[in-house]
Amino acid sequence: MDRPFEDAEEFAGALPARGALLGIDPGEKTIGIAICDAGWRIASPLIGLKKAKFKENGPAIAKICADNAVAGLVIGLPLNMDGTGGPKAQAARAFARNLLGLLNLPILLWDERLSTVAVTRAMIAADTSRKKRAEIVDKVAASYILQGAIDRLKAFG
């Protein structure tokens, strides 16, 4: 693969019929990681990696992929509300390109506008403490992003 996909149907065509998918929310301090089952039914938060240089985070993500027989990755693409890409979207694209150089897996960049906001609101509604929200928001947001993508992928599978 020479580039990340931005079209879910093209991404679906590059995936095997079954296989776990990894969802990634590349936050500013933490990289949230979620995983779904091989049948693409439900996404679950997995871990939050402390953001560091790619030479540290990349191999950690590669190990997670190998340990979980991951077939593809879904990376949150933080677009502006008008659909344009700013510095955060450029950073997510660069992160995806770096992962492509490390992994031989298809990668989908998935519009994640308001995912962290939606997750935070849900946690507040569930009376989750501010401290606990700070600890888990990125991996829960990764799960939210991944669930949105797998719900869309079901239309092509």
Classified in CATH, the superfamily is YqgF/RNase H-like domain
Parts with pLDDT < 50 across at least 5 consecutive residues:
none
Helix content: 40-55%
What is the CATH topology? Nucleotidyltransferase, domain 5
- Shape call: globular
Q: Give the helix/strand class.
A: alpha/beta
| CATH architecture group name | 2-Layer Sandwich
Number of strands: 5
Quaternary state of this entry equals: single chain
Overall number of structural domains: 1
Keywords:
alpha/beta, globular, single chain, 5 helices, Nucleotidyltransferase, domain 5
Structural overview:
The chain has helices at residues 8-14, 54-67, 87-102, 115-125, 130-153, and strands at residues 20-26, 30-36, 43-50, 70-77, 107-111. It is α/β, with parallel strands linked by helices and 157 residues long. The chain has a single domain, classed as Nucleotidyltransferase, domain 5, CATH 3.30.420.140. Strands 3-2-1-4-5 form a 5-stranded mixed β-sheet, sandwiched between helices. Helix 2 packs across helix 3 and helix 4 packs across helix 5. 39% of the residues are buried.
